[in-house]
Amino acid sequence: MLAKKEVSSVEMTQTFLNRINQFNPSINAYVSLDEAKTLAQAKSADERITAGNTEPLTGIPFAQKDIFCAKGWRTSCGSKMLANFIAPYDAHVISQFDAAGAVNLGKTNMDEFAMGSSNETSHFGGVKNPWDFERVPGGSSGGSAAAVAARLCAAATGTDTGGSIRQPASLCGFTGLKPTYGLVSRYGMIAFASSLDQAGPMAKSAEDCAMMLNVMAGFDERDSTSLNRPKEDYTRGLENMQAAQPLKGLKIGLPKEYFADGLDVCVAKVVQDAIAEYRKLGAETVEISLPNTKLSIPVYYVLAPAEASSNLSRYDGVRYGHRAAEYNDLMDMYCKSRAEGFGAEVKRRILIGTYVLSAGYYDAYYLKAQKIRHLIADDFKQAFKKCDIIMGPTAPSTAFKAGEKADDPVAMYLQDVYTIATNLAGLPGMSIPAGFDKGLPVGLQLMGNYFDEARMLNVAHAYQQVTNWHTHMPQGIE
Amino acid sequence: MMEWEVVIGLETHTQLKTNTKIFSGASIKYGAEPNTQADEVSIALPGVLPVLNRKAVECAIKFGLAINAKIAPRSVFARKNYFYPDLPKGYQISQYELPVVGKGEVTIQVPAVGKNAAYEKIINITRAHLEEDAGKSVHGVVEGMSGIDLNRAGTPLLEIVTEPDMRSAAEAVAYAKKLHELVQWIDICDGNMQEGSFRCDVNVSVRPKGTDKLGTRREIKNLNSFKFMQQAIEYETRWQIETLEDGGTIHQATVLFNPDTGETRAMRSKEEANDYRYFPDPDLLPLEVTEADKARVKAEMPELPEVMKARFEEQYALSSYDASSLTTSRGMTNYFVNAVGKLLSHGIDILISPEIPSTEAYAAKLCANWIMGSVSAKLNAEEKTIADSPVNETHLAQLLKRIQDNTISNNAAKQVFEAMWAGETDVDAAIERLGLKQVSDSGAIESIIDEVLIANRAMVDEFKAGKEKAFNALVGQAMKASKGKANPAQVNELLKKKLAN
């Protein structure tokens, strides 16, 4: 549309800005907006299009999760600690979008330091689920999720440490992909749990995700865990999904542990229907087992807080970020600044992480969790000998009401029961809209082998060719 | 009274000679304005990540090869967590369970002290690991506040840890000096102790002599001179022995040495020490060192001091002591090799004997004597390194050539050397000016001898009566009569001839 000059980037951007002005005050998806900066970017995108130097994302307005440092933008990570922090440099993801000529609409709300599954831990307040304002959008990428679902952006970025792209995608009814660990550089992405964090696209369709992943993925020497592999085109093969039974020969693994107790029966029904649709597309299904699934939450809640407790030590009030107004000495300054700057969930995880790394507890918790992490990865290795792709529910339920789980951390943690294992194994995972239960979206999760994103996107695209769940829009925000 | 034994181990922080920081591209040049070398990684902005500097790894490999240590094919960076304003991330990236360099050894030469002769000893190295330095707190610049300078934060360090193998301050200092020479020799550290490029922490404990159990140790932090190290260990040892003899107990502690008072004082008790909560840094992959990496670094390594010492003993027929003294630093070695080469280039004509098996050996011994004698004495007195010697290899070789060709005596040469140290550059002109030219004309020497024989009849008679010593006295008289300029060999020869008649 942009390349054909039917509409300019400035016009398109302005349309989104108008929608943001209209709906953001109630939805609270964005925490930072800068219309002048955004429109300037749109203007230079138009110049680029005029000059004939267009790439697929040139001129498209995106929302960026507030976990990515963007030069000149406040980058708060959902925390009071960084509520005054203006990033002096661009994250790799941001500079990739900039280089592609994309437009940054603003920074989106999120759970504080990405710790949460409902966006309720944000210093800037909760985010409304566009399908039902009484409900949460999921988290931690809740602002990006609401922005995509409410059409307050063309698409958005997110990050996923234990399900933070996929669970909100499921709860808000769109397509979200967490790539293989190391595919997208973490440089400039504020760390929560370094060995699990991974950035990915959040968009209406698999096709949009593929185009975004083309821009986001790639080796970056500034991230030592970034993988140096040849550039891939993630849109390849999408066109072949039009054929009759395009997935003939594809073996879908259905882990029995993902359809056991704890899964909402209505959600299970939607997921089973989606799988039936896949059989129609030519795929066969095979039951598999991921026996250590039940251990993934306890393992995650040892490892992620351990890393977080160390990653968040830099927020000490010395160089930037929140510093208490009054203090007696250095120790008092540290204690007050951190006590004031961090919210309850962040403090809870710092405490857990500090505990599990302490002398005398390290072996029993951290080391043991690392060993189980290998077992979980091995479960998948065995599974992928029997199938090409794994499918199941993304989240155990549809969107829950705000406040419903806020005082019960463990119930909240269980939101990620189906998504965490892929983070622990470093595998790619995806959630696609598969239908509705009582008017609320339900997501189908796809899990692939390492670097199998192109196949996953094809498989998702095939489904989106024969279903229209991903095109549904919430009522009241037309 | 009980005899005590001191047990000493060292931890040395060696600043590696890289251009940039260990985990970022910021410069590590010393002396820049505060925080001008603090990039986003150095100040630990949100979202930044460390990227390992391979040059620092090469330095570690070099060190491992130099001490004949096992270099880990896979080592791991770990986070050491603690809060301090000069530690921007709230953790230091170091190596904990799996260091890059494993067990090795360093041979030290402990100099003679009083009645105790010099000796060699092997000091075992436990490990050496890579880590980043912290920044600095600056006091007194900003009124009522402490400043933080993060220029040094992230500077690459190799921490070298010994076994508790040393038994005296002298051994500890000999080890520190040897290590200091070695890291400069292999060019991984500039060795500048004033700027903090080479800092030693010394663990000291005492125990009754003859027992095996280690006493409780106290760690003397951040010693940046060998003199202070000697003083600090001596004081600390005395203090610990006195404390124990007075019925007290030693508590594990970190202590600082005060050079003004010559005393050590506890900084903080280890009992309140931090739990550092070490764990592998998830931002960095395990460090892999392949055989090919080692081979490549090895190919670039200079000949090591021990190897060079053995070669000097072989090639130049030098004693072990001479060869080891000449291989203390690359500057010393270069000076020696150049001086020998230049002296030989002047053409040397000497008689070969079992003691002097070659002209090369002759030149080497002459150069060695002078470098270890006059040159070193002057350098030490003026606290100069050999690179700053006012008498360079060329001039020294010219001077030594004049000894060899009998133009001047060895003693006269010392006067010429003094003149050259003071700035003269033309050896022959200096000899001329000082009137030190040796008399080698046999006619002139003969007439001097004749006079001496006449004036010392009594000595001549004593000699003829069988008193060999009288001969030396007559030589001395003849040398004196010539004002030291007569060629002593010729005097000997002619005197022998005359007395035989």
Identify the notable features of this structure and list them briefly.
heterodimer, A: 478 residues, alpha/beta, Amidase signature (AS) enzymes, 11-stranded mixed β-sheet, B: 501 residues, alpha+beta, Arc Repressor Mutant, subunit A, 3 domains, 8-stranded mixed β-sheet, 3-stranded antiparallel β-sheet, 15 helices, 15 strands, 19% strand
Describe this structure in words.
The complex is a heterodimer of chains A (478) and B (501). With 478 residues, chain A is an alpha/beta fold. Chain A has one domain (1-478): Amidase signature (AS) enzymes (Alpha-Beta Complex), CATH 3.90.1300.10. Chain A has helices spanning 9-27, 35-50, 92-99, 142-149, 166-172, 206-216, 265-280, 296-311, 330-341, 344-357, 363-383, 409-413, 420-425, 453-466; strands at 30-32, 61-65, 103-108, 155-160, 175-178, 198-203, 251-255, 284-288, 389-393, 429-437, 440-448. In chain A, α1 (9-27) packs antiparallel against α2 (35-50), α8 (296-311) packs across α10 (344-357) and α8 (296-311) crosses α11. The mean pLDDT of chain A is 96. Chain B is elongated. Chain B has 15 helices and 15 strands. In chain B, strands 5-6-9-1-10-11-12-13 form an 8-stranded mixed beta sheet. In chain B, strands 4-3-14 form a 3-stranded antiparallel beta sheet, with no helix packed on it. Chain B has 3 domains: 4-279, no CATH class; 303-434, no CATH class; 442-500, Arc Repressor Mutant, subunit A. Chain B has 501 residues and is α+β, with helices and mostly antiparallel strands. Classes of the chains: A alpha/beta (478), B alpha+beta (501).
For the record, the count of structural domains of chain A works out to: 1
The ordered string of helix (H) and strand (E) elements of chain A is HEHEHEHEHEEHEHEHHHHEHHEEH
Query: Alpha-carbon distance between the termini of chain A?
Result: 21 Å
Strand content of chain A: 5-15%
Largest sheet of chain B: 8 strands, mixed
Largest interface: A-B, 43 and 28 residues
What string gives the helices and strands of chain B in order? Answer: EHEEEEEEEEHEEHEEEEHHHHHHHHHHHH
- What oligomeric state do these chains adopt? heterodimer
CATH class of chain A: Alpha Beta
Number of domains of chain B: 3
**The CATH fourth-level homologous superfamily of chain A:** Amidase signature (AS) domain
